[in-house]
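Field guide to reading this record: the first block holds the primary sequence, the second block holds the structure written as discrete tokens, and the final block holds curator observations. Each block starts with its own label. This record concerns Allophycocyanin subunit beta, catalogued under organism Gloeomargarita lithophora Alchichica-D10.

BLOCK 1 — SEQUENCE
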Amino acid sequence: MQDAITSLISRYDVAGRYFDRNGIDRLQSYFDTGMARIQVAQMINGDAANLVRTAASQLFTEQPELIRPGGNAYTTRRYATCLRDMEYFLRYATYALVAGNTDVLDERVLEGLRETYNSLGVPLGPSVRGIQNLKEQVQAMATQAGIGGDFISEPFDHLTQGLSEQDV
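BLOCK 2 — STRUCTURE
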């Protein structure tokens, strides 16, 4: 996993170039949002269980068929698995948020998800909606704390885009 800094340095190193204005601006942007990234991560860490429960509750209110007999979250075991997966998505999105780089999401979440969900018959639409619910809650929490910026939604959007593009 790389953060925004090591990723940028790698690209310039491979090209054998010094930082140009664009590279310097990207570094400055990352550093300018550094404290806010940490504050949002602290907020997520302090309220992760509630964020997951609330996102799941919203999902099951919108799509009650998931918790009815035959639904993918029907039975206590499947329901718990859904909550566990949402917690994974939130945790890895937090890592990517702090790093300012979505590589960890590709490496640790998206690459193996297709095979896992295919083998289990898990539909991705509800997972995508659950991640969107998590994003909305994190954004609301950050806004309430006076923190804003696209960096908050980037990891969640990367996850939903990656899941939406997969043919499951």
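BLOCK 3 — OBSERVATIONS
The chain has two domains: 1-32, 34-165.
The mean pLDDT is 94.
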